[in-house]
Amino acid sequence: MKTTHLLLIAALTLPFLAACKKDEAAAPVATQGAAVPAPTTSDETAWNAYLTDVVKRNLDGAFSTYVYTLPAADTPDFQGYYDRQLEKALGDVQRGGVEGTLLAFGSPNSGKSADLAVAAFTKAAPGSMKGVKVIFIGDAADKDRVEAAVKPSGGNFQFVEAK
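Predicted structure:
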């Protein structure tokens, strides 16, 4: 009796499942909207939205992301925030990377964000970040020093100008 009951349930649900699969295949693929422009102020919420958008647009198959952000330099306890982010970034970079991971650095203050990225990669073992994408989101003036810090680790450096 149980076997017959299970076969009946399977027979009744199979057409429903097949119909669902057909609908999924016909569903249109969502397209990305317009890029979020870089904020012209140091508003933290606007910067978080911008950095999130940049990271999403540059995932390229990454399945794990780490984003290191800083508030505006005139924020109370900025140094404490910087120190905590540096501690986190240093630990993550020292452990080495796993292929498919994305690390992103960005903030309203490109110079301080570049300082954070450079300092984080001082402890990276040569070749330890192979297969890891490292994005620096900031000013072109800071690009070269961040790229030079990332290069020995074997990380795949990408620069996105904040604009």
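Summary: The longest strand covers residues 64-69.
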